[in-house]
Structures are given as C-alpha cells and as structure tokens.
Amino acid sequence: MTAKTDSLEIGILVYPGAQSAAVHGLTDLFAVANRVAGELGEHGLPLLRVSHWQLDESAQLQVVHDSLQQPGHGLRVMLIPPSLAAAPSNALLAAHGAALRQLHGQGTVLASVCIGVFLIAGSGLLDGRAACTHWNYTQALSERFPKVQVAASQPLLDDGDIVTSAGLMAWTDLGLHLLERFLGHTLARETARYLAVEPAPTPLPGASFNPRLEHGDEAVLRVQHWLQGEAGRDAGLADMARCAGLEPRTFLRRFRAATGLRPTEYAQQVRVGRACRLLEFTRRSVDQIAWGVGYQDPGAFRKVFQRLTGMTPSDYRRRFAVGSA
Predict the structure, then answer these.
(1) In a domain, 205, yes or no
(2) How many domains does the chain have?
(3) Where does the record locate the signal sequence feature (predicted)?
(4) For 79-99, how does the pLDDT look when each residue is reduced to its tens digit (9 = 90+)?
C-alpha cells in the first residue's frame, strides 16, 4: 500500500548514536513549514509527512514515529542525521547497507548530515561519486572509502539522488535546501524567516537539478543512478538502452514518460551540474572539466553549458568560484 498522493513523506533514520537535536529539530522544521504553507495560502503544495525509522531485530526498517499516522509509506527522502559519537562502526554500516540500497533502488533520495554520510558510503552507493562531510572526518572518509570523491571544501552537495552536507549542525541548512528543492523558494525562505535562521542559498544557475525519481519504472531508474556514477559519464543513447535492458526506441519512450526529458537532455543536466561544481571548487581548465564530465569535444560542452546556465563556463567561474571577488 502506498501513501496518499497529497503528502510528501520525508523519513529520518534513527540509528544508534544519532544526534537527537537533528532528529527532532528536522521534525520541527518540517512541521513549521506545513504551518507556514497554510498561513501563506499555499494550498496547492503537498503536506509534509515526517516519519522516523529504525532497524528491527531482523534488520528491516520499521516506523517508530509518523506525523500523519496514515497507512502506507512512499518515502521521497530518507535523511541520515549526524552523530555526536565517532564515525559509525563497520558493523553499524553493514547493518544498514541493504536497507539504504533498497530505498535508493526504489527512487528515494538519500540525504546525510555530517558523518551520516558514512552510512551511505558503507552501502556502496557513493563509489565513484562526490560527497562532503564535516572537515574533521574528510580524511577518515577518504581512507575508509577510497572510491568516494570527498569534496572537502563544499558545505552541501546535491547530486540529484544523493545529497550530502558537511557541518554537525548543518541539518537546518539541509532541511531548508530540501524545502527549496521540493516545495519552492518562497516556502523555504519564509520557513527560515519564521525560525529566525539564515535562509538556504539560492541555487546557482545550472547547479541544481531536481530529477524525477519516484516514477516507478525500475529500468529507467537504474539508468538514472548509472548516469550519476562514474561509469555513465560519457554514455550515449545505446549505452543507456543497454543499461536499461531495453530496445533503444522502447527505452527512449519510457525514459521520457518517466522523467519528462529525453535521455540526452537528462545526461546534459547531470553533466552540467557536475561541471558547475568543478568550476566553483577547483582550478581545472574548462577543457579538463569538459573531458572530466563526459564531453570529448570541449566546444560542444561550452555550447550546452551556456544554453543551460545562460553564461559561458569562464563567466560562471568568474562569478561563482570560491574565493573569487
């Protein structure tokens, strides 16, 4: 049984050692967002439903709190809070790995705060992908999971199906970011104003891509996840169809029906978003970035980048690179 379609469910993983302030603070933040939406007259927005989840004795996730108390669940996001303890043990990571892989495979966005990222990394879902964590744990994350590309300088990294944030108290920023992504800038800004905290930064042009992941087409979702990883960076239509296990024409039709985009358009969004982060946080040349995100022709990359962001890669770097004037 699935959840009501007029609600958007956000789960919070309550694992041993999880920071209570983050678990209950995020629950309160989303409750405030519901109140603010009502006061603004935003009746077209779905109601935020917050559920808390724990592993039972058989290593299955069970609900221990549900803000709406409705039958059925349809998690759009699973939040993994930080911990005041040391980085999670290998045993704790192994216990949660299968459950997180299952959620991710069903189209749930995984989002972590601080060392919550270790649980996602322990599931193998971050292999070949970028992620951020608290500065005190970047070396430990790199050493324990060498396949993860640790982005030490980024406070928050939204990579579509996986979102990671760095600071121990970054759960407020992450909560507001998710409001912005799923329910819009106005609600995120007014919720921050109600809470008297700094609003989430406005996403930079081209740097934020909110893909449809909850469509239920497993073959298409498999390709979406593959494109986010290293193996799919220079994939063409035939490669994507093979990944889906479908004939190209059938794949093209199903992909567009599920995501609202043609496969090539979707891949361009993913690659340009990755290029934006590299332009902001690295000093690689534009040509190197083009090759790194899957374009063999830097000229073609520049054209796509300008069409999606409204500026050239060089202009983007001058305006938004960390440390620029």
Answers:
(1) no
(2) 2
(3) none
(4) 999 998 888 999 999 999 999
